[in-house]
Amino acid sequence: MPFAVLLDEDGKAAGIVEMNRLGAVSLMRPKALFTGVRTFARGHHQHRTGPRPTQLGATLVIAPGDELIYIERESFAGDHADLNEVVAALLSRES
Description:
By secondary structure, this protein is α+β, with helices and mostly antiparallel strands. The chain has one domain (19-92). It is 33% helix and 14% strand. The protein has 4 helices and 2 strands; from the N terminus they run H-H-H-E-E-H. The chain has helices at residues 12-16, 24-27, 30-41, 83-92, and strands at residues 58-63, 67-73. The chain has a two-stranded antiparallel sheet. The N and C termini lie close together (8 Å).
């Protein structure tokens, strides 16, 4: 099964799928605070923010024919799609 990873350097895809942005409320969520502290404790530090520092990420699975079969938009920094759900979406279209 062919697949690709899109790195949206200019933000065009983020606009198309209506990505979430990081805000003060999302920074104060207990899970976000815990994730931030744990990440910092592991030695990971943000050095350069780039042109869109408040842009959150997303995981999309797009089938042939441009059919969107899975999307998970991050709600806060450190929020990620459940890998079991991503794999299930990929396998649902396996030929």
